[in-house]
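Hey, I was hoping to borrow your eyes for a little while. No rush at all, and the record is pasted right below:
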Amino acid sequence: MIDIMLPEMGEDIEEATISFWHVEEGEHVEEGMDLVEVTTDKSSFNIPAPAAGVITELIATEGETVQVGNVLARMEEEG
């Protein structure tokens, strides 16, 4: 199981808001595929899948503000 977390974004940014999910629970994803768009007070960016696999749980919801290091979703890696 892989935890997909909100990464460090530099510039003293400590939180971001979930704009929208590109995937749903149970969906197969490829490594590097965009999973979720997050927005900070300075910019927005996508968080990619760290590996190929299946999204097993979306933890953070659209519109929710999350802290750096919080788990956004979980996935089961292929292979």
Observations:
- The chain has one domain: 2-11+24-77.
- The mean pLDDT is 93.
